[in-house]
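Ppx/GppA family phosphatase
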Amino acid sequence: MPMQTPTERYAALDLGSNSFHLLLAEFRGQRMLRLHTDHAMVRLAEGLDAKRHLDPVISERALAALQRFRPVLEKLPADHIRVVGTKALRAAAASADTFLEKAESILGTPVEIISGIEEARLIYTGVMAAADEPPRPRCIIDIGGGSTELVRASETPEQLQSLYLGCVVYSKRYFADGIIGRCTVNHFHRAQRAARAKLQELQHMAAEAEVIGCSGTVKAVSRVLNGGEVADIKRGDIDQLASTVAAAEHIAELDLPHLEEERRPVFAAGLAILHAIFCELDIQRMAVSPYGIREGIVHDLAGRLHGGDRRFETVRAMMQRWQVHTNQVRRVSDTALKLLQQLRPTCPLEDRQRLRWAIQLHELGLALTHSNFRKLGAYMIKHADMAGFSKSEQEHLAYLVRNQRGRIKKPREHYGFHPNPDLLLCLRLGCIIHRDRSERSLRGINLARQGDAYRLQVERQWLDASPAIEELLYQEEQHWQSQPHPLRLLAV
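Structure:
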């Protein structure tokens, strides 16, 4: 964990499928202190219909909950806040633009939709922040409202999994009317069998490992079994609890000690999933961590600001795996970033980083194909498990890589994805100037905005020395004619 200056404060807001959770934390040296926590039981996943549209009533309930968190967030710098959306918002992403825009307006900061694998990584980071013991094999399990994450780790994560089973989703599917067991149908057993089917081929995740659970479902079960305390869950105890719940007729009849009323509607579904994990992975004891994804987000944020940004490691690993030509990356990167500095002298660091990452990955697809390397590279970036990146960040990088040359494909813009033409132009020009993989100076070249258009001014002597590049630049001028900000090439 990188060093922080004393008393730095961060806020993490997790927009989960079951509940929204806020954490305000402070670093004092290497130690993180939780200053304030808050949560709202929203059950966002309950509001998704068959077409993954978000129910307006649930949406308004969620937005009302966000109003409560705003006073905490508005006191912090923007780069000390991270708001993430998980399974329900991943599923609703195509139809949730209005909700996300309203949420951003309320909170004053963007909402990042993250993949299930990134969710698992952040959960691991958070749980490990509370582990003082030396590294050893561990299996970390988080049951959320819409998905369940499992991590197998020792010193670092070895395998991350995100499964489509959660307490809200399973409540809606198996316990919609509140009935648990009646006549020949036992919904608890059906939910449990369905969860076990999802866990096939994952038995190794907990083999010879310390098992640690986190999240609301795990803590709720722990309290019921341990007299209201959050303590280890033992196999015999959860077996007995599962039998008791399965024997009940209706959720309303559950008379369980220390079961909070707001947890009651999803408790049977969450227990069915947790018991299925115990059975299928042959777990005898599960420790319960007080930390989870929110603590992971805070540590990730601190890392970004103090030299430990996981995204740099991810890009570097992808470059190594796919044998990206580093000299060409350097050439294109130096030129593109200098052009961006000419165009926007006060360009935000976030944009410069995005351009640099896109250039580092722009030839990713060359490892597998030459004719379609742009399309393949963009596909790999968009669908890869890229630790540290949100889904919209990956979409931005994929768009830049896909459009590094040739006709500029018009994107389908949506919340979190509004491509920046300045970055695209600088990337494309950098690729053109070094198309033959040669070193070239930018002396005699100037890029600027002139009204609604871009103006690229190039000295005639420079063009005469590189006739093939001159032709490519004139072709580039044509490609931008249909864009909102056309390009004008001026030879002087």
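The chain has 18 helices and 16 strands.
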